[in-house]
Design goal:
With about 80 residues, this protein is α+β, with helices and mostly antiparallel strands. It is built from two helices and four strands, in the order βββαβα. The strands form two sheets. A two-stranded antiparallel sheet has the order 1-4. A two-stranded antiparallel sheet has the order 2-3. A hairpin with a 5-residue loop joins β2 and β3. The longest helix has 11 residues. The protein is globular, with a radius of gyration of 12 Å. The protein starts with a strand and ends with a helix.
Length: about 80
């Protein structure tokens, strides 16, 4: 399941540099590209963006449900 940044985002930029897949981009609020988000599966034990977010505004995106195996395959394809 990809992650999503809620509209309570303060645009602090803490999340963008820690994303191993460069899935986070700037906007009025920051956005996560679901095609690039692997919830850090393949790179880290837990989503790094959620760990560093001071606004606690990053959640799982119910519109992009994926298994751990699917997330790992996506990570491997992005980094092959």
């Amino acid at each position: 399941m990809a992650l999503i940044i809620l509209d309570t985002c303060t645009a602090c930029d803490a999340c963008r540099p820690v994303c191993p897949n460069q899935a986070i981009s700037e906007g009025d609020i920051y956005l996560i590209d679901p095609d690039r988000c692997t919830e850090c599966v393949g790179a880290e034990d837990e989503p790094q963006c959620k760990l560093v977010c001071p606004a606690d505004c990053i959640e799982q995106d119910p519109n992009h449900v994926e298994t751990r195996d699917q997330l790992l395959a996506k990570y491997q394809a992005l980094h092959s």
